[in-house]
Amino acid sequence: MQNEDKKNAQEEFVFPQLILEETLYTLGQLKNAAPENAHIALAGRSNVGKSSLINALAKRKQLAKVSSTPGKTRSVNLYRVAPYNFFLTDLPGYGYAKRSKSERELWANLIEKYLVECENLVAVAILLDCRLEPQEADKMMVQFALAHQIPIIPILTKADKCTQKERSERISQWTVLIPRGTPLAVSSHSGLGLKELWKKFIAVAEHSCFAQHIDLQQEVEENICSQKEEQEEHGEKENQQQKTVLQDSIAQEPPKKIRTKRGAFAREKEMQKKIAQEKARKKAQEEKSRAKHKKK
Ligand SMILES: Nc1nc2c(ncn2[C@@H]2O[C@H](COP(=O)(O)OP(=O)(O)OP(=O)(O)O)[C@@H](O)[C@H]2O)c(=O)[nH]1
Ligand SMILES: [Mg+2]
User: Fold this and answer.
1) What is the pTM (predicted TM-score) of this model?
2) What separation in Å is there between the alpha carbon of 152 and the centre of ligand 1?
């Protein structure tokens, strides 16, 4: 789709399409998954409504498997968003105690590995149950994302089950816990907030370093990745106090080494440097030719 068509689609707001592109069960499979596109992951406790949200966003009933029994999604599922050409990733849930230890370990590994090593990950949408007070596992997920400088899109699910008062209360609670992140209340059942959520996802993906039509110079000048920078700053401070990894809460394994620079961010910096160098080179060339002119 051309830029003009995208603009028209945004104006009327046509829901994008979701196409299941890959289902990954092992850590090895994660390696080469969709390397060229931006990814936004949906993370959250089992049963919070991640897969239901995928279905609701796609306006489909059975695209992703949904169940009232926690632990339904056991793989990393990559959905291509058309026509925008980025990925939404449905992850297994965390925090479900009734599964075997080995199963929990595998899921925790998959989630952690995906979140830490997917260099194209531009944000993690953390789904939080609107009906519940902030849960320990969710707080740990937030800390995990902050510690790894992954921008967070907080989402309150099952908003149809909450009163307006409960929603506002939950929003205030999470706003304190997530810097720069006022949660968006959505309901996969009533459709509340879905349009806004799509717009948010599209904006995040399109303003990322992985957008397909990117005009790098303009992007750099507008400093689109400033959220990442701010979170990095915040993450570094937080790192000292909260070297929390997701696995601590799920599989009780010792924390892994935290990467201080995400590959994508480092690449962005590298590009900025190259553009600055190119600018300086052009300026020097212009000055040289001006000087030559004067001599003549
Ligand atoms: N009322 C209400 N129920 C919802 C909503 N979203 C999901 N549910 C219900 O919550 C249950 C769990 O939904 P899933 O989408 O399977 O949850 P999940 O987060 O993918 O769960 P795992 O795959 O186990 O991690 C199902 O019974 C859904 O019908 C919502 O917006 N409103
Ligand atoms: Mg699921």
Assistant:
1) 0.73
2) 20
Q: Whose CA is nearest to atom 24 of ligand 1?
A: 71
Residues having CB within 6 Å of any atom of ligand 1: 44, 46-52, 66-68, 70-73, 92-93, 157-158, 160-161, 187-189
- Distance between CA atoms of 173 and 134, rounded to whole angstroms? 7
Task: Confirm if 273 and 121 have CB atoms less than 8 A apart.
Answer: no
- DSSP string covering 248-275: HHHT-PPPPPPPSS-HHHHHHHHHHHHH
Residue 194 is given by DSSP the state H
d(CA 174, CA 138): 10
Architecture of domain 2-207: 3-Layer(aba) Sandwich (3.40)
Strand boundaries in 83-227, DSSP class E: 86-90, 121-129, 152-157, 184-185
Q: Which two tokens stand for residue 87?
A: 């990925």
Taking the C-alpha atoms of residue 93 and residue 185, their distance in angstroms, rounded to an integer, is 19
Contact yes or no for 76/65 (Cβ under 8 A): no
Confidence band, pLDDT 50/70/90 cuts, at residue 28: confident
Instruction: Give the per-residue pLDDT at 104.
Output: 72
β pairing state of 86-90 and 76-82: antiparallel
CA distance 216 to 221: 9
Whole-number Å distance between alpha carbons of 96 and 47: 9
User: What are 152-200's pLDDT values in tens digits?
Assistant: 999 999 999 999 999 999 999 999 999 878 899 999 999 999 999 999 9
Task: Quick: pLDDT tens for 88-106.
Answer: 999 999 877 666 777 777 7
Comparing 239 with 82, the larger pLDDT belongs to 82
